[in-house]
C-alpha cells in the first residue's frame, strides 16, 4: 500500500472543492473533511468503546484548564495511550470520561462531578465547561477513564465582575520550539504563585524535529521519523502537539495554573498573513492547511466552545475580566491581517507600510477592542497579543529599518488603537507581547518619533521558552537597539518568562530568565524588575 505525501493530500483536497466555494468557511471545512476522512461538521457519530478496555495509561498528555470566569472553569485532557501514533492507540470510537472538581488536592470535598465523551472526531480530546461555581476560588480537578486516573490539576475561578480585588499575578510565556531546547522555564513557572498564565503564541513550531530532538540532543531516546518533517496535514499537527505535550515541564505548568492561549504564526506556518501563506502555493491549498492547524489547536488547548473552529475560521479574540482590577482583551493579530509590506522582514518604512487602509487586527476586531475599552471599569486594561507593539528601530540613524511583521509594519493600525484607547479614557494601558525571543520593557508613546511626547502606556515583552536556543544577556544588537529607541527601558536575550503583578496603585513586571535551555536543569533568576504607577504610565526600575 502506498501513501501520498502531505502536499499531495492538500492538492487532492483542493481539487475536490469548487474553487469559487473554497474561500467560504463551509467550502474549506468540506475540503478539510475530505482530506482527513472526517465528518465535515465534526459530528460525534462513532460507536462507543468501553473505557475499561483501555489497557495503557491514556493520560500521557496531562491535563489543563483555561479561560477562568467568575462562576465557571474549562477543563481539558486528551486520551492518548500511545501519543506518537496517528490514532493515539485508540480505535475510532467514543470513550466515556469521568471528571471531578474539588476544593482540596485530596478530593475529599468534591464540588462537582460528571461525565463527558472523548470523541475520535476531535482526536479523543475532552473540553468540559463546569458552571455554577463560586467566584474567586482555587479548585482541583482530575479525570478518570476505566481504571485509569489522570494527574490532578489546579485551577481557579475569576473574581465577580464588580469585585475590588487587591492583587492579581500573571505570567506571560511564548515561543517554545521543541527542537531548540528543554522547557526548563516551565518547570520553574509551575512553582510560581500566579493566578493565570497567558500564552502569547508559537505554542508549537511547524518545522521538522530530528530523531534526537534537535538541540535537546537526546541520547536516551529516539523520536519517531514522522516528526522529522514540516507539519502540513491534520495528522501532522495533531502528532506535533503530542510531542510537545509529552514534555513533563510543560505538563507541570498546565497542571499548576489555568492558561489563556492565543496563537501567532508557527501554530500554522511562519509569517502567514490572513489567507496568504509564506510560500507561493494556491490559496485553497493553504486554507486547507490553516483549517487543519486551527482544528488541531482547538483540540489540544483548554478553550471553550465559542472558540471551536469551522474550517479555516476560528474566533480566538475574546475578553476576560478579573473584578474591577483588570480587563484582558486577548487579540488575534494573525488571522485577519493585511499582508506584510515590502516582502516582510526588516525593511525601510514607506508608503506601502504606512498605507492607512492596512490592518493588523481586521476592522471587526479593532472595533470590538475599542468598544470594550469604552465599557471597561477596570483599573488596568491589558492586551495580551503576539507581536511587538512599540516602535523598534534597528539603528540609531536615519537609515533605520523596522520589522514589517510587527505593529511597525502597520503604523496606521497601531495609531487607531492608541487613539481608541485615549478616546475611551483608558488610563492604564498595558500590552503583553511574545514573538521576538527576547525580553523588552517599553514605554508606549503618543508619538514614537518624538521621545518627549506623552507616555500613554507600557508594553511587557516576554522572551521565549526555548526559541533561539540559549541566547545571551546582551544580544549583538543591544547597543544599537537601546540607543535607537529611548522608550526601550529593558532588554535581555536569555530564555524564560515574565511575571506581572497588578495592584490597584501600581503594576510590577519581573523578567525571569534561565542560563541555558540546550542542557536541562538550569536555575532561574530575575534579570530585571520594573514598576509603573496607576495613572502615571511609564516604567521605572523596581
UniProtKB/TrEMBL annotation:
InterPro entries (UniProt xref): Metallo-depent_PP-like, PhoD-like_MPP, PhoD-like_sf, PhoD_N, Phospholipid_Metab_Enz, TAT_signal
Domain Phospholipase D N-terminal: 61-157
Annotated Pfam families: PhoD, PhoD_N
Renumbered residue ranges of the record's region Disordered: 340-359
CDD domains: MPP_PhoD (cd07389)
Signal peptide: none
Source organism per UniProt: Streptomyces castrisilvae
Name this polypeptide is given: Alkaline phosphatase D family protein
Phylogenetic classification of the source organism: Bacteria, Bacillati, Actinomycetota, Actinomycetes, Kitasatosporales
PhoD-like phosphatase metallophosphatase domain sequence ranges: 170-511
Amino acid at each position: 500500500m502506498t501513501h501520498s505525501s502531505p502536499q499531495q493530500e492538500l492538492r487532492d483536497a483542493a481539487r475536490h472543492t469548487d474553487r469559487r466555494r473554497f474561500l467560504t468557511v463551509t467550502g474549506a471545512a468540506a475540503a478539510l473533511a475530505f482530506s482527513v476522512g472526517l465528518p465535515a461538521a465534526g459530528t460525534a457519530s462513532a460507536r462507543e468503546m468501553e473505557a475499561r478496555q483501555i489497557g495503557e495509561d491514556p493520560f500521557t498528555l496531562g491535563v489543563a484548564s483555561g479561560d477562568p470566569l467568575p462562576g465557571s472553569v474549562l477543563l481539558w485532557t486528551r486520551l492518548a495511550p500511545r501519543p506518537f501514533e496517528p490514532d493515539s492507540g485508540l480505535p475510532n470510537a467514543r470513550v466515556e470520561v469521568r471528571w471531578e472538581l474539588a476544593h482540596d488536592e485530596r478530593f475529599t470535598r468534591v464540588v462537582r462531578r460528571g461525565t463527558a465523551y472523548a470523541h475520535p472526531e476531535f482526536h479523543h480530546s475532552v473540553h468540559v465547561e463546569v458552571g455554577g461555581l463560586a467566584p474567586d476560588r482555587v479548585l482541583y480537578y482530575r479525570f478518570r477513564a476505566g481504571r485509569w486516573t489522570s494527574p490532578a490539576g489546579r485551577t481557579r475561578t475569576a473574581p465577580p465582575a464588580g469585585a475590588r480585588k487587591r492583587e492579581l499575578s500573571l505570567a506571560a510565556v511564548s515561543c517554545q520550539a521543541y527542537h531548540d531546547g528543554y522547557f526548563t522555564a516551565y518547570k520553574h513557572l509551575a512553582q510560581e504563585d500566579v493566578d493565570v498564565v497567558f500564552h502569547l503564541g508559537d505554542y508549537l513550531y511547524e518545522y521538522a524535529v530530528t530523531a534526537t530532538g534537535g538541540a535537546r540532543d537526546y541520547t536516551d531516546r529516539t523520536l519517531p521519523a514522522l516528526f522529522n518533517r514540516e507539519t502540513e496535514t491534520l495528522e501532522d499537527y495533531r502528532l506535533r502537539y503530542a510531542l510537545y505535550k509529552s514534555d513533563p515541564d510543560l505538563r507541570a505548568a498546565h497542571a499548576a495554573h489555568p492558561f489563556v492561549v492565543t496563537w501567532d504564526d508557527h501554530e500554522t506556518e511562519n509569517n502567514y498573513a490572513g489567507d496568504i501563506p509564506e510560500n507561493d502555493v494556491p490559496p485553497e491549498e493553504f486554507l486547507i492547511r490553516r483549517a487543519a492547524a486551527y482544528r488541531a489547536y482547538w483540540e489540544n488547548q483548554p478553550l471553550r466552545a465559542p472558540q471551536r473552529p469551522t474550517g479555516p475560521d476560528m474566533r480566538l479574540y475574546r475578553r476576560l475580566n478579573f473584578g474591577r482590577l483588570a480587563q484582558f482583551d486577548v487579540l488575534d493579530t494573525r488571522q485577519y491581517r493585511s499582508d506584510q509590506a515590502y516582502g516582510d522582514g526588516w525593511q525601510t518604512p514607506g508608503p506601502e507600510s504606512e498605507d492607512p487602509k492596512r490592518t493588523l487586527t481586521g476592522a471587526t476586531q479593532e472595533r470590538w477592542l475599542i468598544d470594550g475599552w469604552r465599557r471597561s471599569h477596570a483599573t488596568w486594561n491589558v492586551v495580551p497579543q503576539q507581536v511587538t507593539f512599540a516602535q523598534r528601530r534597528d539603528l540609531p540613524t536615519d537609515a533605520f529599518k523596522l520589522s514589517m511583521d510587527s505593529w511597525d509594519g502597520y503604523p496606521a493600525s497601531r495609531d487607531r488603537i492608541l487613539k481608541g484607547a485615549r478616546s475611551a479614557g483608558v488610563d492604564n494601558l498595558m500590552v503583553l507581547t511574545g514573538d521576538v525571543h527576547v525580553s523588552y520593557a517599553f514605554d508606549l508613546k503618543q508619538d514614537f518619533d518624538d521621545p518627549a511626547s506623552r507616555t500613554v502606556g507600557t508594553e511587557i515583552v516576554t522572551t521565549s521558552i526555548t526559541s533561539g536556543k540559549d541566547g545571551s544577556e546582551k544580544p549583538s544588537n543591544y547597543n544599537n537597539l537601546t540607543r535607537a529607541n529611548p522608550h526601550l527601558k529593558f532588554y535581555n536575550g536569555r530564555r524564560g518568562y515574565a511575571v506581572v503583578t497588578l495592584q490597584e496603585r501600581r503594576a510590577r513586571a519581573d523578567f525571569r530568565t534561565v542560563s541555558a535551555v540546550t542542557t536541562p536543569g538550569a536555575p532561574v533568576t530575575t534579570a530585571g524588575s520594573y514598576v509603573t504607577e496607576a495613572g502615571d504610565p511609564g516604567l521605572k526600575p523596581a
